[in-house]
Amino acid sequence: MLQPQNWSVPAMMPPGWMATPADGFVPPVDVLESNNDLIYIFAIPGARPENVRVEVRQQALEIEGNASLPDGGQYVYRYQEWPAGRFYRFLPLSPEIDAEKAAASFNQGLLTVRFPKTARGRQIAINVQAPASQQGPGNPEGNQPGSPGRTPLI
């Protein structure tokens, strides 16, 4: 898992959308982590892939673009929670990701940006084995005669 001292995600915003200083909106984001990837998922209803810019610079993820509301046709909006117009988000990235291998996709209003972790950022289990001289016939675990079996430290 990524260590908090190496990077940070700014405080998550309250549900819904918040206005930005430039009369736009800030899309909410979920950040998911696996042993191999770090994934950012932005909710941007009304946006189209060709109207979204995704860029990594100076160890930060920047997204911006434009989203439009569905045409109400013969109807007039009486209440609206989906934002429209310009959106922008800038988030710091972990130094343990490989930005060169990032991939972005857009599907049904969700922008997903996936970063593979570098080897430095992956959790790797290492098996602990007894020296070969302690292993032998009748002692497959490698225990000293008269000593209890191996006990995990944690």
Give keywords.
single chain, 154 residues, four-stranded antiparallel beta sheet, three-stranded antiparallel beta sheet, 9 strands, 0% helix, 18 kDa heat shock protein, A-crystallin/Hsp20_dom, stress response, HSP20-like_chaperone, Small_HSP
What's this entry about, in short?
The protein is 0% helix and 36% strand. It is mostly beta strands.
Mean pLDDT: 78
Taking all Cα atoms into account, the compactness measure Rg is 25 Å
| Model regions low in confidence, pLDDT < 50 over at least 5 residues | 1-19
Shape: elongated
Give me the side-by-side strand order of the main sheet: 3-4-9-8
Distance between the termini: 18 Å
- What is the overall number of helices? 0
Query: Sheet with the most strands?
Result: 4 strands, antiparallel
Share of helical residues: under 10%
Approximate strand percentage: 35-45%
Number of strands: 9
Order of helices and strands: EEEEEEEEE
Structural class by sheet pairing and helices: mainly beta
Descriptive report:
By secondary structure, the chain is an all-beta fold. The protein has strands spanning 18-19, 25-26, 29-33, 37-43, 47-57, 60-67, 85-92, 103-107, 110-116. Mean pLDDT is 78; it is low at 1-19. Keywords: Stress response.
